[in-house]
Amino acid sequence: MFCERGMKALWVFVFLISSLSSKSQKIIPRLIERDEAAEFERVDSFRTLHLMFAGNIYQNEEQIKNSYKPSENRYDFTYQFKNIQPILNLADITVANLKTAFTGDAASPHSSPDELALAIKYSGINVVCLANSNILSLKKEELSRTQQLLNSMDIVYTGAYTGNIQRNGNNPLIIFRKGFRIALLNYMVISNRAALPAELLVNEADKSLIERDIRAAKYQSADFIIIYFDWGSNMQDIPSYSQQNLARWCFEQGAGLIVGVHPNAVMPMEFIEYYQNATPSSGLVAYSLGNLISASADMKNRNGFILDVELKKNNYTGSVKLGEYGFIPVWNYYDTVSAPKSAKVYAVPSVAVQNGQVFKKNTLH
To answer: Does residue 305 come out as left (phi exceeding 0), alpha (psi in the -120 to 50 range) or beta?
Structure first.
């Protein structure tokens, strides 16, 4: 009797298992078919990254002296950026060319008080480029102190290093924002190779070095590569053939955007036509952004502009392309009216001055 009941229970268990397995066989194909159908319903979607690029940040002895507050025994440079700060803070990444340093030596013509780094941070600038002529005048310990101060302000830097170990660990600079992996490469054109400091490593605009860095950026899965050049000659206002040729070559190697500084004057922007993998393409190059903060009262040195661009990333394919772009003219206002015995320098958006939003009662000089 016990055996018969056991046999019946076994047959019932086998029947349930077989019926479940037959149902699951029917369910699985339906799930697969549903997933395949969903693939055809996908629509491309994009995410956006907002970037701004500014020109040179200078400080001379007169600017530093006029930024000192005797009553508080400290320097305050925030006024220099206060009118441009609302614009610079709109971007996810804001880059500028730092043509000074923070060596701790008040007598050095190549250095500024530490308070300037704080003003730069408050302005919205979060990335600075160091491959420029000012860095060539520094010693290793002076560059190291500059880097340490920038680190304390959470300002990222690239272009100059205290040695090979530091360069290999930080170049190319990969910036992560909003799901983007942006590579920023910074180089300077050096006319006098004897001027290169023996104890520092400054990225020189050498094609073999640029090619290796671009390859390294691609190896690190960079979505988009930006090259920031310190090139050209002082007061130059038209790009040279060598600059156009170098820009085209960089695009052919894989760069997506090229920005230039150094001449202390504004130069044009243009799209350069080139071929990559036998496919015609075009790339945007801004040859010179001029000065964000000038160290000269010369009218031509006061001009600058901020390059304002958006990058678009396809969420499905991962491809990144240049989206909308434009520029914001900037003017350096030397205020000799409110403080007659000094000349404080302000970076102001040109349109704000034209609309009477800043310096309404003062006369521009």
So the answer is: beta
